[in-house]
Amino acid sequence: MHCPFCFAVDTKVIDSRLVGEGSSVRRRRQCLVCNERFTNL
Q1: Nearest-angstrom CA–CA distance, 39 and 30
Q2: Could you write out the DSSP letters of every residue in 13-41?
Q3: 9 in helix, strand or coil?
Q4: Strand order in 11-19's β-sheet?
Q5: pTM for the full model?
Q6: CB neighbours (10 Å) of residue 1?
Q7: So which residues are the signal peptide here (predicted)?
Q8: pLDDT value at position 1?
Q9: How far apart are CA 41 and CA 35, in angstroms?
Q10: What's residue 9's pLDDT?
């Protein structure tokens, strides 16, 4: 996963949650380069 702020490749997953009826997963990630946090589905 690429960071949307600095475009680095190194990210780690902080939190994972099922969305809706469990058909998708929402992941909270943190960039290891710029330390910004973002969410992806």
Answers
A1: 9
A2: EEEEEEETTTTEEEEEEEETTT--EEEE-
A3: coil
A4: 11-19, 24-31, 37-40
A5: 0.83
A6: 14
A7: none
A8: 85
A9: 19
A10: 96
Distance CA 10, CA 22 (A): 27
Quick check: 19 and 8 in contact, CB under 8 A? no
Length of the chain: 41
CA 18 to chain centre: 14
- Note whether 8 and 23 are within 8 A (CB): no
Per-residue pLDDT for 7 more than 90? yes
pLDDT in tens, 12-29: 999 999 998 878 999 999
